[in-house]
Design brief:
By secondary structure, the chain is an all-beta fold. Helices cover about 0% and strands about 50% of the residues. The chain has no helices and eleven strands. It has strands at about 5, 10-15, 20-25, 30-40, 45-50, 60, 70-75, 80-85, 90-100, 110-115, 115-120. Strands 2, 4, 5, 6, 9, 10 and 11 form a seven-stranded mixed β-sheet that branches. Strands 1-3-8-7 form a four-stranded antiparallel β-sheet, with no helix packed on it. It starts with a strand and ends with a strand.
Length: about 120
Amino acid sequence: QVQLVESGGGLVQAGGSLRLSCAASRRTFSNYAMAWFRQAPGKEREFVVGISWNGGGTYYSRSAKGRFTISRDNAKNTVYLQMNSLKPEDTAVYYCAARRVMITTTAQDYDDWGQGTQVTVSS
């Protein structure tokens, strides 16, 4: 099991940027694919972006492509989400998640989740 703690959320104006971090507890963090999901009020949790265990592979949702960048530092057991050109529709609680082996876009495939961090984008 991997314990995950997100940070970096907050309130930002449209067009602004935020950088989210997700710190993992486990020394074998490098064995895990990582992903960011988000959930807005009244909506289902949706996949945003994922990264392979070594950072060599990434997969972006249509909404994230071109604006968000995922990265990881296995030496620090941390994954990052750089979000630029934020829009009001990006407002949601953002969660990081971990699973062994491959990135998938399905929340049910992920074994471990953080508690979430709120991102609010004002217009």
